[in-house]
Every structure is written in C-alpha cells, then in structure tokens.
Amino acid sequence: MKRSDKFRQANREAKATVMATIAVIIFWTLAGFGLAGYDIKILSTPIWVWMGCVGSWLFACLVAVYLANCVCQDMSFDDGDEEE
What we know:
This protein is mainly α. The protein is built from 2 helices and 2 strands, in the order H-E-E-H. It is about 65% helix and about 5% strand.
C-alpha cells in the first residue's frame, strides 16, 4: 500500500469517527430529552434515564463495533513496507 493510500485510509477513518460521534450525540439527545415527556418507568426510574444512559452506551458500543469491523483497516505506517 502506498503512503498516499495509507493517509487516504486514515482520513476516511477519521471522517467516519466524527460522523459516528455525531450519531451518538444525536441518539443521546433524542433518547434522553425526546423521551422526557413519557411517563414510562422501569424499576421506578423514568425511561429517559434508561435510554439516555444505558441506551446511549449500548448504541455507542454498536457504532464502535461497526467502525472496527467495516471502516478501520489494520496497516503499518513504516516507510519500508511500501508495495507498488
């Protein structure tokens, strides 16, 4: 892999990570504030607390697994291993 290809891949991973962070923030906002008007309780705790905390954490874990399996690529940044 050429050096320019490596930097292109690193840039792709960085952009995907930013988009994933934005997605988690949007989920957190919708799950926490969006469910605040509902009177649903689990173990005497409002649903917005569960979804804002536990739901957001689970969503972030799923996004991280997706990034690791589908976007990120294992590569060496050593200059000596260039294959043209």
